[in-house]
Amino acid sequence: SQTIHQWPATLVQPVGSPLSLECTVEGTSNPNLYWYRQAAGRGLQLLFYSVGIGQISSEVPQNLSASRPQDRQFILSSKKLLLSDSGFYLCAWSGDRDQPQHFGDGTRLSIL
Amino acid sequence: KNEVEQSPQNLTAQEGEFITINCSYSVGISALHWLQQHPGGGIVSLFMLSSGKKKHGRLIATINIQEKHSSLHITASHPRDSAVYICAVPMDSNYQLIWGAGTKLIIKP
User: Which residues contact B16 (CB under 8 A, 6 or more apart)?
Assistant: First the structure.
């Protein structure tokens, strides 16, 4: 069966520090991968999606970047975090665009 | 106007009640997703449906493509059903899902 792992679960970082959140999927090949952010009390916002290794599409301009160095690995990064980067970050995968998305447990990021 | 609208925004009910959450959308879709977000933040995909009705345990999802409307029903509700329920539809042009604002459901024992 397929599983998705996302870590860390909680992260507290100072403003201006770098960020690296990792997401890995097991049990499937060539998944579509997604990074979402959810601000407090708000809905999900798609940040990036990837349909293959090295293929990254960004949905909103921002202080973050994403990379997919391996088929089942998706990394969310920032060189310098801003206060506005605080939120709940979720990684997800799907077999195809029209198939259900399966979510990781999320990372709660607090910027101080 | 939001392209995906959910109602109600908040719903509090007693254990055992029959629950209905509604989702209306204005875009043409290939499928509609229902998801559940637990208080801790984790999200679980409940259903993806493009027509008719799907049932999983005490959860039932229906969709009327002509009316652009879907409902999520919970029978014999239980406090563990307390969560935010979200519907989402895929955009035609890319991989983005258009998300409803969510319905916060609280089931009291």
Answer: B76, B77
Pair type for strands A10-13 and A107-111: parallel
The answer to whether A39 and A11 have CB atoms below 8 angstroms apart is no
Nearest to B99 among A44, A88, A106 (CB): A44
Nearest by CB to B45, from A34, A102, A105: name it.
Answer: A102
Q: What angle is formed at CA A91 by the lines to CA A89 and CA A97, rounded to 5 degrees?
A: 130
- A81, A13 in Cβ contact below 8 A? yes
Residue from B95, B97, B98, B104 whose CB has the most chain A CBs within 10 Å, to mutate: B95
User: Strands B52-56, B59-64: parallel, antiparallel or unpaired by DSSP?
Assistant: antiparallel
Nearest residue on chain A to B86, judged by CA atoms?
A43
Give me the residue from B33, B35, B41 closest to A108, CB to CB: B41
Q: What are the beta bridge partners of residue B103?
A: B85
From first to last of its 109 residues, what are the pLDDT tens digits of chain B? Answer: 568 999 999 999 999 999 999 999 987 777 899 999 988 888 999 999 888 999 999 999 999 988 999 999 999 999 999 999 999 988 766 667 888 989 999 999 9
Q: Do B45 and A101 touch (CB under 8 A)?
A: yes
